[in-house]
Write a structure and sequence with these properties.
Belongs to the prephenate/arogenate dehydrogenase family. It comes from Cryobacterium arcticum. It is an enzyme of class 1 (oxidoreductase). With 360 residues, this protein is α/β, with parallel strands linked by helices. 44% of the residues lie in helices and 16% in strands. The chain has 13 helices and 12 strands. The protein has a 5-stranded parallel beta sheet with strand order 3-2-1-4-5, sandwiched between helices. Strands 10-11-9-12 form a 4-stranded antiparallel beta sheet, covered by helices on one side. Strands 6-7-8 form a 3-stranded mixed beta sheet. Strand 2, helix 2 and strand 3 form a beta-alpha-beta unit. Helix 3 crosses helix 4, helix 6 packs across helix 10 and helix 10 packs antiparallel against helix 11. The longest helix has 24 residues. It is globular. The protein starts with 9 loop residues before the first strand and ends with a strand.
Amino acid sequence: MVESRLIGPVRVVGAGLLGTSIGLGLTARGLDVILADASPTNLSLAIDYGAGRAATPGDAPQLIVVCVPPDVTADVVARELEAFPDAIVTDVASVKLAPLTELQERGADVSRYIGSHPLAGRERGGPLAGRADLFIGRPWVVAAHDAISYQRATAIDDLILDLGATLVEMSPEDHDNAVALVSHVPQVVSTLMARRLTDAPGSALNLAGGGVRDVTRVAASDPELWVQILGANPAPVRQILLALRDDLDRFIDALADPSAPGARRQVAEEIAGGNTGVARLPGKHGQDRRYSVITVMVDDTPGQLARLFNEIGEVGVNLEDLRLEHSPGAQIGLAEISILPEAVSRLTTELAARGWRIVG
């Protein structure tokens, strides 16, 4: 068992995906984790899965982690601060300025509170989706403010490091602006694009490939949760959407008459601007190095994908990333293998010699 930086006990309020995962990660380090949830069923499930124990009279937690929806985060944090006057309290809501502002307006003791936000999750929620390794290697923002001392905030740093996450320090304002750009607006764009598919003919949907699937991947999200998130961070999201609307207007105007002087140049510059933006996204190990992609046809039978991985390893090429897509109406998959550009020729030749079909 790996020794924990925290002393404990740690009280986790909210036994959903994040709360249960935090509990599982900390109990694996031998910490005493106290679980609380408004749902007796969620609480029982999280306890049964080993994420912690039920609260008892006299509990004196060192740290309290509030894992509840954004619209009740400030209420629960205020209650925990009052109930446990010696504990440090954090929350994991995806917006940071609104809870802090509300707590300050209430006169809560924010000298013992600092918001945080792990950028980790899964496609499913609830205690059954909890995983002890959910946060490993993921960014976890600590939204510092002037009312809490560095010494008191150390417990939150220890929590993050214990769970294997990467600590990132930001102000609440900078955090909310950042997640508006990289999380909240992409959710809106994905959702609106997916709505265009609602009345689309089946013949069109049968042609769907990686492009539309990539754009709409996060559209299958919980509407109630996103109403709360967007309602708690409206100004930054609105500003980005207004700028995006201007971008769309330029594109629409250019497409009104593609043969007009400057129209094709406008379209080209907009697309080139997208190339520049996506090139700035950090890739593997935080680097922005670009990889080359080769596409391999894989029979949709057991063991074929494992065989492909094994033979790529035998060739001595490192697989940097992978995307798998199934071909409609055919029993094959298309494996898009991302590798270093200098390895493309060698890997293509070696895989072809081993009987793999390379697309393109």
